Amino acid sequence: MRNDPTTASASGPDIDTLIAARLLALRQVQALSLADLAERSGVSKAMISKVERAQSSPTAVLLGRLAAGLGVPLAQLLTEEKEQPQRLRTRAEQEIWRDPKAGYLRRQVAERRGGGVELVEVELPRSAQVDYPRWSGKPYRQCLWMLEGALRVDYGDERFELSPGDCLDFGVDRPLAFKALGRTGCRYLLAASPE
């Protein structure tokens, strides 16, 4: 696994404030009440309210449920909306977020522009597991390329075990679970694109 000094700022008050603002804005754009989003996502109204007030550091699982309930990619909760995406995104400019519970690290390598491709680098610590529900919005495809370690992906009823160099194509139309296998964590790249 890489040792990256920028990961120290991957979570905390600044990212919690950004998540709070993005969640509230996305909920309001869809004219959803707290109760509506709670019903769609399976997250309590009280927890949604805490996240929207930046009083709670949400986990990857919680963010996944909220994104699924809103029908948006997870990146929309973790990155600011920019009028004009940059052509060059240096490593230092790529947003990073660390799950406060599982230690999952997510780096937004490239934002989705228009109907294009989004790239996300993920690091899962040893034995960490992250579960996501089926997305309720417009489905999209993902392609996962294993870089380091070993990973198990449960895609609905299908199970896949990946090693470095392996590539898996799947959608968000079924529940997903990612689990790091072996003695170390794992690192992989996700490319997401519209179906």
Explained architecture:
The protein is an alpha+beta fold. The protein has five helices and ten strands, in the order αααααββββββββββ. It has a six-stranded antiparallel sheet, with no helix packed on it. It is globular and about 45 Å long. The N terminus is likely disordered.
Concise structural overview:
The chain has 195 residues and is α+β, with helices and mostly antiparallel strands.
| Main β-sheet description | 6 strands, antiparallel
State Rg: 16 Å
**What is the straight-line distance between the termini?**
32 Å
Order of helices and strands: HHHHHEEEEEEEEEE
Q: Could you say which structural class the secondary elements and strand pairing correspond to? A: alpha+beta
- What is the helix content? 10-25%
From the structure provided, what is the oligomeric state, counting identical versus distinct chains? single chain
Give the integer mean of the pLDDT values.
86
- Helix segment tally: 5
Gross morphology: globular
> pLDDT below 50 for ≥5 consecutive residues: which ranges?
3-9
Major sheet: arrangement of strands = 1-2-3-10-5-8
What is the total tally of β strands? 10
Give the DSSP E fraction (strand runs of 2 or more residues): 25-35%
